[in-house]
Amino acid sequence: MPTPVNVAVIYYSSTGTVATIAKAMAQYAEKAGAEVRLRKAGELAPQAAIDSNPAWAANAKDTADIAEASPDDMIWADAVILGTPTRFGNVTAQLKQFLDTLGGLWQAGRLADKVYSGFTSTSTAHGGQESTLLALYNTIHHFGGILVAPGYTDPSKFVDGNPYGTSHVAGQGDIPVGEQTLTATRVQAERVVKFTRAIKDGLATEN
């Protein structure tokens, strides 16, 4: 029987693009044999701001049943896949706030030796996909995490072109998540589960 793998998919999404990718990431990780928790970062924006944007308000309603991420999800997970739209080439404040609550776990060494990976969305093709993921991955280095990015490890990656993580160009929210992004999501989820299992097997053998 394969070694069990726990994967937490933790994301922030305002208008729904990253939420769509997160749900697909969770589904593909489950298909690859992982136990999965899908969690969202808590919202910081005022309700008035959310209500002013129909897509934002619709996504808030559509994802109301998804639990907010907690430190317990990080403890439970063998692998954590983090998703965020870009904010000026960086991680959203909402996801960053969640990460900033993990100082106690970091000090206790509870975030080290886990697998981490990331995904993002931007308005344009050069709107910060790479810089956002690299900024996110700086945090992983501080955690002592094991970064598993998709790289160019599948023929499809030469089509979507992003070795850092799944990314989607959403325009002004008018470009829906399509087959290319979903394929990248599948490749990344499967790779995360594969290497998380291999690392757990290796550690078990050492012990």
UniProtKB/TrEMBL annotation:
One of its GO terms (molecular function) is FMN binding. GO terms for cellular component: membrane. Residues 7-200 form the Flavodoxin-like domain. SUPFAM superfamilies: Flavoproteins (SSF52218). PROSITE patterns: FLAVODOXIN_LIKE. Belongs to the WrbA family. This is NAD(P)H dehydrogenase (Quinone).
